[in-house]
Amino acid sequence: PVDNTCCYRDPAFSPDGSHLLFAYQANIKDSPTLFYLIPYATIGTGAAYQPLPLPPITDQEAQPQAILRAVLEE
Questions:
Q1: Distance, CA of 35 to CA of 52 (rounded, Å)
Q2: What pTM, to 2 d.p., does this model score?
Q3: SS3 52
Q4: Mean pLDDT value of segment 2-28
Q5: How sure is the predictor about 51, in pLDDT bands with cuts at 50, 70 and 90?
Q6: Which residues have C-beta within 8 Å of that of residue 30, sequence separation ≥ 6?
Q7: How far is it, in rounded angstroms, from Cα 19 to Cα 40?
Q8: List of long-range contacts for 26-35, beta carbons under 8 Å, 24+ apart
Q9: Which long-range contacts (CB under 8 A, 24 or more apart) does 18-22 make?
Q10: What is the spatial distance between Cα 7 and Cα 2, in angstroms, rounded to a whole number?
Q11: How far is 2 from 4, CA to CA, in rounded Å?
Q12: Which of 5, 10, 46, 61 is deepest in the core (most CB within 10 A)?
């Protein structure tokens, strides 16, 4: 979903199945790892996605794994 390029890792669906969370790192030396949370139904539509506003992970050996959880309503 990001510029038809490599590399994706650790995909996870949101608890309701409507969104996909994944880490993305371009196959370029010193490329940071960025996280994306995108609506699943938009994959393949040509939509442009922006990474989540988190600090980029620059350690090439890091293996970050984000987790989504359901919101508990009171």
A1: 6
A2: 0.80
A3: coil
A4: 85
A5: very high
A6: 58, 60
A7: 5
A8: 30/58, 30/60, 32/56, 32/57, 32/58, 33/57, 33/58, 33/62, 33/64, 35/64, 35/66
A9: 19/68, 21/66, 21/68
A10: 9
A11: 5
A12: 10
